[in-house]
Amino acid sequence: RCVCYGLGRFGRCPAARYQLAFLLLLLDELRVPPARCALFDPAFSAREAAALRALGLCLLPDNEEGKHGVEGSATLFYMVHCGKALYNNLLWRNWSPAALSKLVIIGNSFRGIEERLLSRILERDYGYIAKVLKGVKEVALPSHPHYLDTFNDTSVHWFPLDKLLELSPEVWDCVEEPMYQDCEDLEIIRKGE
């Protein structure tokens, strides 16, 4: 399965078109049928939604705010240039070694997020990203001069079960849903906004 968040207005934006093209090539390479790929972006126009359906892709009916569970199935999350809260929500929703070991994220570099944020802000606002840093493997996508704006700071992330099991048991005790009340740079469109 594949879930794509935050693709953007590909009808207007060349970078979003490149990201869509890469997603379609990736689905083909991984032999994931388009019908097993669900997308959501609150910015999609009716025309863009129709184009995605014509490609055989599914649209998620509601804004999940990134809170999509793997439900026991290996799932690729394609989230290029999404806000930190979406990644944090996704981790929260799948917060167990069994679930995290079934997901792969193509999106903003977690190491880059760690480097750019003060550690107290990372831990306060994006605690699930902070807690999983020692349990994630990350490989940056190779850069290409033609697509620097399209895939910069993009990495493939996966969570090997053996690395997750090495984390302190207390890491898994916190299952509180993220709220982002004191977050100054929240990059997420909430339900109903």
Automatic annotation (TrEMBL):
Sorted alphabetically, the keyword list is: Signal
Q: What GO cellular component entries does it have? A: cytoplasm; nucleus
Q: Signal peptide: which range, if any?
A: 1-37
User: Among its keywords, does the record have Signal?
Assistant: yes
Start and end residues of each SRR1-like domain: 1-158
Q: Which InterPro entries match?
A: SRR1-like, SRR1L
Matches recorded under Pfam families: SRR1
Please give the family membership noted in the entry. Answer: Belongs to the SRR1 family.
According to UniProt, the name of this protein is: SRR1L protein
Organism for this UniProt entry: Myiagra hebetior
Encoding gene (name): Srrd
